[in-house]
Amino acid sequence: MDIPYTVELRPDTGLYNAKVGIWLFLASEVMLFGALFSAYILLRVGAPEGYWPHGWLNVPLGTANTLVLITSSITTVLAWVSLKANQFGRFKLFHAITLLCALVFVGIKSFEYHDKFVHYEFTLKNGKFADGHMVENKLKQDGNSFTGYAVIRGHVVEDERELYDLNAHKAPAHEDIRIDGAQIAKMGNYGPWHNTYTAIYFTLTGLHALHVIGGAIVIGFLWGPGSKLWETDPERFTNRIEISGLFWHFVDLIWIFLFPVLYLL
Amino acid sequence: MSKNENHPATAHSVRGYLIVYVALIVGTILTVWASFIHFPSREINIVVALVIAGTKGSLVAAYFMHLISERKMIYSVLSCTAIFFTGLMALTLWALHDFPSLTVTH
Questions:
Q1: Inter-chain touch B17–A78, beta carbons under 8 Å
Q2: What is the dotted CATH code of the domain comprising A17-45+54-115+195-264?
């Protein structure tokens, strides 16, 4: 049995069915990300004075990723235009660039995540705070006490708030600092458990990255084995490219808001 | 089955897409630049960044996602989304000023 309205337009909607389907799905996605943006607003406004981070993320890398996603959006739409113009070779080229952009985006994001997981904050028993990237970790934890030592590349501050607004408090030059286990009251890296900012940062960007990976898998299939449909049913294949493109543009659109909210404000 | 019929507007639309692409690049640079300007209050920085992001988002939705020339059915779906999204944000803003009694605020 043939699936109806994959190419021809349904008389009552004026659209092929997949297009209605993808827009309904995107409508639900708006609410999903909307709920998380709402959580972000509540967490940010509820943070104590001086304890909402500024300048924690790498702006040049975030900007680069924004440009990469925007570029992938134009190649996606040009891939669809190429099929409309019966230029299958150009479609392959444009979507190959889209896939490359997806790979670069995930690569940069992974680098940023790794940077947070090797970045540690130590609360010292003398009331100071040591902060920096782990160089050598020979610490052993037994309950609340530590033995051994760690070497970090960073700095020590008197007030923890100096670690929060890096735009206002210019960090001194980083140097290798050895911290003995006996000095440590508490320690932890900048993973999602660090504070509410890293929690919402990893949740929002992690969910977005899953969308990028999911979209890239679909586009990759349509670029590779799925492209055989072009030979037998080109209009249906073109519609599939339009649908996957709509999802990809939505992923780009979400990042357009995530970038300033998380990296710049 | 025949291949797609040549789209008469293809060359014209490619030019339009490229203009939008350049606008998005410029918008991104503008967003980063504006974030380094010290306005009298941080709220102004937030408004400026969100206005630029909103403009960029509208360009993507209108031209790359073809919302500028879609069918009524899609607009109906998105109208419902807009109503619920606005309600969600209104509830969020309302919650900011509606603490239960005995709440400890900073």
A1: yes
A2: 1.20.120.80
